[in-house]
Amino acid sequence: MKTLLILALVGMSSLALADEAKTTQTQPPVQYDYSMNLDIKRVINLSTIPDVCEVVPATMTYEDHQGQVHTIQYRAMGEGCQQG
Questions:
Q1: How far is CA 74 from CA 3, 15, 32, 54, in A?
Q2: What is the pLDDT of residues 5-39, one digit of tens each?
Q3: Full-prediction pTM beyond 0.70?
Q4: Please, are residues 59 and 75 in contact by the beta-carbon 8 Å criterion?
């Protein structure tokens, strides 16, 4: 009987974690502002900056010190500008 109860609890907690992961992935990115104080423990992904000479949108996905995953959108200078 205890084994059945443990299996049921493990199954429910697994479903709750899967649901939480889906929620994190579907949230739209937050627009970065210089006044924001970001808590970045680990960068998970940075978008590729295009080879143009202009300001372009970019995104960063990161994990904070509490283990929550966030995606933030910011503006970056393209990689196509030549220094002369």
A1: 50, 33, 5, 14
A2: 566 556 665 555 555 555 455 678 899 998 999 99
A3: no
A4: no
- CA pair distance 29, 24, nearest whole angstrom: 10
Pairs from 35-44 (Cβ < 8 Å, separation ≥ 24): 38/62, 38/72, 39/64, 39/65, 39/66, 40/64, 41/65, 44/69
- Which residue matches tokens 């500008």? 81
Task: With respect to residue 45, please indicate whether it lies within any of the assigned structural domains.
Answer: yes
| Residue 16 identity (one-letter amino acid) | A
- Domain presence at residue 46: yes
Count of domains for the chain: 1
In three-state secondary structure terms, 58 is strand
Determine the pLDDT at residue 27: 75
